[in-house]
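A common beginner's mistake is to predict each chain separately and then try to dock the pieces by hand. The better habit, illustrated here, is to supply every component at once so that their relative placement is modeled jointly.
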Amino acid sequence: MNQKIGLFDSGIGGLSILHELLKIMPNEDYYYYQDTFHNPYGNKSESELLKISQEIVEILLKKGCKIIVIACNTATTACMSQLRELYPDVIFVGTVPAIKVCYDYHSNHSILLSTPYTTKSKRVQELLELYTDDNHEIINVSGEDLAHLIEEDDKEGINQLLIKILSPYLGKVDSLIMGCTHYSLIKKEILEVLPAIQLFDGSNGVAREVFHQLEKNHLLKSSLEPGKVEIYNNKSNYIIDRSYEILNHMDNEDIQ
Ligand code: DGL
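With all components supplied together, the output reads:
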């Protein structure tokens, strides 16, 4: 019986989505596959990303997942449509940068910060075409190696790279769209370089879409008992421990 909500990402970035899922559906069971071994995804090709994603989908299906959340903008923009074709019976929910939300919010000058792959992806080009006009400018910026530095917990490297990438826009933008789930884990650091801007994070929207898909397909868990969260990391158990710490930290920030 397929019972779990499966997630995957190139490491800890998917925690931002798992955290939102747990807020909406604390009673569900989760299996989160962290592919730190292949991190970063952002400098890989479409065929590499498809091969990696397909292998993980097979694992998640064997683990008994009833829905698969691609908790990664890079893998979503690269191969979500191919995965849907390859597995027509599987429900996939992907992650794309919250460009439309930013547009609807009437932000005038925004940065879209995403991985090298996502920055150039067809999906993002399409969204930018749809949701930019004379009053809504979105500057498409590559986060370069940022996701890898976040995965490595390299605080010094993160701060230096953020200053290099973002400081040219100080005073010139009013918002930033998080185009990579890893970046949701460094909101504080981003705001230190670009204070007082609005951040658009699609994690909550992804979680609501998962709820909607489960409800529509009559797959919501009926028991209201708290569910189980399993995290698997294919590189190091240390990252699993760190992940639970990050989740707890996110909970505490929500309470304040
Ligand atoms: N967290 C992922 C994303 O949202 C991938 C980051 C990476 O490995 O480059 O794009």
